Amino acid sequence: MNQADKKRYIAIDEILWKDWDPIGVNDNENLRDEYQSYTPHVFKLKKEGADLHKIARHLYQLETVGMGMSGNLMRCEVIAEKIIELK
């Protein structure tokens, strides 16, 4: 992984932790790794040029299927936009 990819990977991890945080745990640094298992796939989607809707649907599926929550597609779209905008 080159330096630019490393920066994007770390930035995606931060977005998932600070902005996405569907279960509301980002106020406890001891749980910092809660979403890190999702970072590799989201990074892959970004690297492959996935559009906003594909990334948002993935995040939404993680919320609804993976976590069993009701999910918030509009919020996932906001998060996906932040990921798309990463340089």
Helical content class:
55-70%
Number of strands: 0
SSE string, helix = H, strand = E? Answer: HHHH
How many structural units, i.e. domains? 1
Let me know the average pLDDT.
95
Give the C-alpha Rg. Answer: 12 Å
Q: CA-to-CA gap between the ends?
A: 15 Å
Q: Which structural class fits the helix and strand makeup?
A: mainly alpha
Spatial shape: globular
Distinct helical segment count: 4
Beta-strand content: under 5%
Low-confidence stretches: none
Q: Could you please describe the fold and organization of this structure?
A:
Helices cover 63% and strands 0% of the residues. With 87 residues, the protein is an all-alpha fold. The protein contains 4 helices and no strands. It has one domain.
Structural key phrases:
87 residues; mainly alpha
